[in-house]
């Protein structure tokens, strides 16, 4: 991972940790309810949350598994996770810092690896998936939740552009097909997959990232000029709010 990208991610997120903890988009969601269902039989499991952010997936997992390691590049995020875990009495959560591409854990050390709304920041997705595969025990599971690309070129370009304008540390949202291919190439097989929609309220979406006003105007300009196909797919509203595709899958 380039030091420049690592520094960019840290600068984008360390100051925003509290905003992410309070964010409705991150704190709630059908994906967290689904995660709880998918972890229902894992009381003895050691679980790693890669790119844990403000810790919402870790907090969902904590009562259901034996141990949670919350792992993130941002010190600010990990401080928020530690404070909130203490407040909630979740003593089985421990924190570790670093990039997804270099996991500081032994081979075969986790039963489950999860990641939520983080993979689109990973500098080298193939390296990160190799590391996830390495730290999973034989028969272990990888559960991913993220924004997904619609796959179609015109829709994909629009999504990646507004994402990068809002947050320069954004790398790429992958489509369902891309995810299935990458995971299969790493020797894992997807046995559950759910596509969904996520409504993003515009003003809080840009405020969370402290997006500069001139860039907010550029995003609004793009929203104004798009084709009907893009406007319809993303359900772009008059106030700029829109709907993104999401993906959630489990691979063994």
UniProtKB/TrEMBL annotation:
For the protein in the UniProt heading, the enzyme class is transferase
Q: Which PANTHER family match?
A: METHYLTRANSFERASE, N6-ADENOSINE-METHYLTRANSFERASE TMT1A
Enzyme Commission numbers on file = 2.1.1.-
Q: Which GO terms describe its biological process?
A: methylation
- The protein's superkingdom reads Bacteria
Print the keywords alphabetically.
Methyltransferase, Transferase
Residue intervals of the Methyltransferase type domain: 48-144
Mind listing the GO molecular function terms for this protein?
A: S-adenosylmethionine-dependent methyltransferase activity
CDD domains attached here?
AdoMet_MTases (cd02440)
Protein name per the record: Class I SAM-dependent methyltransferase
Regions crossing the membrane:
none
Pfam short name (any one): Methyltransf_11
KW Phosphoprotein (keyword) present: no
Keyword DNA-binding in record: no
């Amino acid at each position: 991972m380039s030091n420049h990208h690592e520094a960019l991610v840290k600068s984008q997120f360390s100051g925003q940790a509290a905003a992410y903890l309070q964010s409705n988009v991150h704190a709630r969601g059908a994906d967290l309810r689904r995660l709880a269902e998918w972890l229902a039989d894992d009381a003895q499991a050691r679980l790693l949350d890669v790119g844990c952010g403000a810790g919402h997936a870790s907090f969902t997992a904590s009562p259901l598994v034996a141990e949670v390691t919350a792992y993130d590049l941002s010190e600010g995020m990990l401080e928020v996770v530690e404070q909130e875990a203490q407040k909630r009495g979740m003593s089985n959560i421990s924190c570790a810092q670093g990039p997804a591409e270099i996991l500081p854990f032994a081979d075969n050390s986790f039963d489950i690896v999860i990641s939520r709304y983080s993979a689109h920041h990973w500098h080298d997705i193939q390296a990160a998936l190799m590391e996830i595969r390495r730290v999973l025990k034989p028969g272990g599971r990888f559960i991913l939740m993220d924004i997904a690309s619609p796959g179609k070129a015109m829709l994909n370009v629009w999504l990646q552009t507004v994402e990068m304008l809002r947050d320069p540390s954004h790398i790429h949202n992958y489509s369902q097909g891309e995810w299935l291919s990458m995971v299969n190439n790493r020797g894992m097989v997807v046995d559950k997959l759910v596509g969904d929609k996520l409504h993003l309220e515009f003003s809080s979406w840009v405020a969370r990232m402290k997006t500069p006003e001139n860039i907010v105007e550029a995003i609004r300009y793009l929203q104004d000029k798009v084709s009907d196909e893009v406007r319809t797919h993303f359900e772009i509203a008059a106030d700029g709010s829109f709907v993104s595709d999401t993906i959630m899958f489990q691979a063994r």
